[in-house]
Write a structure and sequence with these properties.
Strand 1 and strand 2 form a beta hairpin. The chain is elongated and about 115 Å long. About 15% of the residues have low confidence. Helix content is about 65%, strand content about 10%. It has a 4-stranded antiparallel beta sheet, with no helix packed on it. It is of the alpha+beta class.
């Protein structure tokens, strides 16, 4: 039988197709299906797939990439859905915010230690801050004493008009005195609240500084 006759026979019998498939498999095995490797996976219906590129039926699951000798080169993770990508992006932003907050905490602690290397320095700073507010209170109290004295003079003058309407000038002075005295009382009350606020702030600082002075690292309570 000639060579041409044998080829005709192989094609007719289907053996040629088998040999062709075998040859293709051999090429893939020994050539590694190109530099990208061989992708393999089992889809949602339980069917196994093999390809020289990512397999569309398995985009929702992991795909193994094999070398030409059958060893595993890598695992390609599943592609995320739009919802999964949005969740991953939000998680990434959250981690970035946490990292920024951690760095801010470290920077604040270092600045705090730079300003207050020891407790006496912190105590002096507290005293200075409180003194500024106390001077404002003292000034308002002196103003209030003067306004009270002025009011006594105005009341003495108003006694002359008892039972009658006060003259516009005197009425205006009385009203102005009332407003000014109330303003000074408001200042005193506000500044006393400021004393409490300053003391609370320095108390919190002192508690943190004592831990930093004891060796805690800057930003010790910030989220990792």
């Amino acid at each position: 039988m000639s060579t041409d006759d044998r080829l005709v026979f192989l094609r007719a019998s289907g053996l040629g197709r088998m040999l062709g498939a075998f040859a293709l498999a051999w090429v893939c095995l020994h050539a590694g299906a190109g530099p990208a490797g061989i992708y393999t996976c089992v889809d949602a219906q339980g069917r196994r797939h093999t390809s020289d590129r990512p397999i569309p039926e398995c985009l929702d699951r992991e795909q193994r990439v094999l070398n030409r000798d059958g060893s595993q080169r890598q695992v390609v993770p599943p592609r995320m859905t739009a919802e999964q990508r949005a969740a991953a992006e939000e998680r990434r932003r959250q981690l970035e915010r946490q990292e920024a907050a951690r760095k801010d905490a470290i920077r604040r602690d270092r600045n705090l230690l730079h300003r207050f290397p020891d407790e006496p320095t912190h105590a002096q700073a507290r005293s200075n801050a409180l003194e500024v507010v106390r001077r404002v209170i003292q000034g308002a109290e002196r103003q209030l004493v003067e306004l009270d004295a002025e009011r006594q003079r105005l009341d003495a003058e108003a006694e002359f008009y008892e039972g009658r309407r006060l003259p516009p000038r005197l009425r205006s002075q009385v009203d102005a005195n009332d407003a000014q005295r109330q303003a000074q009382r408001d200042v005193i009350q506000t500044q006393r609240g400021e004393l409490d606020r300053i003391n609370a702030l320095y108390d919190v600082e002192l508690e943190r500084l004592r831990r930093l002075w004891a060796g805690q690292p800057a930003g010790f309570d910030a989220a990792p």
